[in-house]
Amino acid sequence: MAITRIHAIVEGRVQGVYFRDYTVKEACRLCLSGWVRNMGDGTVETEFQGEDSEVSRMIQWLHKGSPLSRVAGVKTNPCLVVLEEKGFEVRY
Fold first, then answer.
1. Nearest CA to 7 among 46, 38, 35?
2. Where are the alpha helices (DSSP H) in 4-92?
3. Which pLDDT belongs to residue 21?
4. The one catalytic residue among 13, 37, 38, 57
5. Among the options 13, 20, 70, 91, which is catalytic?
6. What is the pLDDT of residue 30?
7. What pLDDT, on a 0 to 100 scale, did the predictor assign at position 1?
8. CA–CA separation, 29 vs 56, rounded Å?
9. Integer Cα distance of 91 and 71 in angstroms
10. For the chain, what is the radius of gyration of the CA atoms?
11. Is the pLDDT of residue 15 over 90?
12. Class for domain 3-81, per CATH?
């Protein structure tokens, strides 16, 4: 089982529309660990890791987002796996 970690920036109308809460729910459904947070420029930043197939599903989900969001773009980059990380959380 290959583990992949992705850093992503989600642009568009993604704050104030429960994007972070839905991101946590989707990541947990996919058994991913990581975090999500709002940024001062109106974007949402997230890092998540897990099996390659589930990480790919999460990236696809980010392009759709929460029901009230309007995703304009998603920038992703691979990053180093954090072996000791457990769970998925909202960061402030």
1. 46
2. 19-29, 52-64
3. 98
4. 38
5. 20
6. 98
7. 75
8. 13
9. 20
10. 12
11. yes
12. alpha beta
